Amino acid sequence: xxxxxxxxxxxxxxxxxxxxxxxxxxxxxxxxxxxxxxxxxxxxxxxxxxxxxxxxxxxxxxxxxxxxxxxxxxxxxxxxxxxxxxxxxxxxxxxxxxxxxxxxxxxxxxxxxxxxxxxxxxxxxxxxxxxxxxxxxxxxxxx
Length: 143
Fold this sequence. Notes:
Layout: H1 15-24, E1 40-43, E2 47-53, E3 63-67, E4 70-77, E5 96-103, E6 114-118, E7 121-127
Antiparallel strand pairs: 1-2, 2-7, 3-4, 4-5, 6-7
């Protein structure tokens, strides 16, 4: 075993892991029972598009909102069949609530967003806000 000289400026061994988990942000589910679905985000000439695979999720169970430049997707999937004998070789399919928040990289027209659900793929299209031109403000001298 090696001796490590104590220093008041030496970081704790788990600080790096804590910082990584904090920085991972939306990659890590918010709670132990939530699923954070993966997303693809790209832009077209006029809009920002977010796609996420949500197989097994009823589109009526989805709640999508945009507030202050952050897209939130909430939903749940239910297991429709239950196996009496629980002698699984693998159990990788998750059921339960899902939640994901994605900061949007550009200004959008939040109230014009549209969502479609086709073959388990949720597609959200949000029109980009028009570029605002800078406004020149004149300074008045009060002398």
